[in-house]
Amino acid sequence: VHIPNFVEQEKSFKGKRGNYFLYAGRLSKEKGVLELLSLFSTMPKLKLVVIGDGPLKEEVKKYSRFGNIKILGKLSRKTVLGYMKTATATIIPSKCYEVLPTVLIESYSVATPVVAPRIGVFKELIKEGETGFLFAANNQNELGNLLLRVMRKRLAEMRVKCRKEYLEKYRGQLYYERISKVYASLARD
Fold this sequence. Notes:
Helices cover about 40% and strands about 15% of the residues. The chain has helices at about 35-40, 55-60, 75-85, 100-110, 120-125, 140-150, 155-170, 170-189, and strands spanning about 20-25, 45-50, 70-75, 90, 115, 130-135. Strands 3-2-1-4-5-6 form a 6-stranded parallel sheet, sandwiched between helices. The longest helix has 17 residues, at about 170-189. The two termini are about 15 Å apart.
């Protein structure tokens, strides 16, 4: 039985959209954060906000010298969601095979599209052009070109689809209903 994770529903998911991309997560090698920062350091017209903590914390801080990159460190979930709901998109540049990243569900919950590599579950979790965008893993050139296109797109319709995806799949109530059915079926056996 497959029961996806969930995040609690935010009361407010609408916000005035900013003109920046967001990385929120662990600052570690397998998450691809250094490659993302390197890309943004060469693209001054694109803005990136980085939230998180981890073993690469000190190395990540060095990128704050670029005017288009803001390193915020570890923040409360509420603050992260505030940045997330005003971001153009959340970027998950992971180099490893993820299972179901909470940051993806959180992004959908606040109606923000996701940009991720075309590997593993991302191909199933992100509906290309509807709830986000996919790029070839480890292809910085493709990612850079994609982000430039995303900045020019009107994303209002995608935001509606992201929120709908969250409501249909990742709400806490759905999780509780699904797991209760599994327990009930096991109790009958």
